[in-house]
């Protein structure tokens, strides 16, 4: 279902795709934070394996959300994205032009 939502959201920056990407992030994070209460009723030898599969599934959803952000251009992946944090160059020499009179 998340793949379909990613496909339908497109790569443009507008309200609908941003909300979809936000939900792609929030749902797996909420699921990972409540993993103990989700598996409270399941006990036994298979519970650990099921928790691991559940964990990897939610991590895959987070990876899909990061991929979507990257394809939309929201992740700072280039050096030009960090230009606000670069100190401007200090000039060592100054020169000025002049007019040659003959």
From TrEMBL:
Topology relative to the membrane: Multi-pass membrane protein
Compartments, as annotated in UniProt: Endoplasmic reticulum membrane
Organism field: Ornithodoros erraticus (European soft tick)
Family: Belongs to the EMC4 family.
Protein name: ER membrane protein complex subunit 4
Keyword field contains Manganese: no
Record-linked InterPro entries: TMEM85/Emc4
Alphabetically ordered keywords of this record: Endoplasmic reticulum, Membrane, Transmembrane, Transmembrane helix
Sequence intervals crossing the membrane: 6-26, 47-67
Lineage: Eukaryota, Metazoa, Ecdysozoa, Arthropoda, Chelicerata
Assembly and interaction partners: Component of the ER membrane protein complex (EMC).
A Pfam family matched in the record: EMC4
GO annotations of cellular component type: endoplasmic reticulum membrane
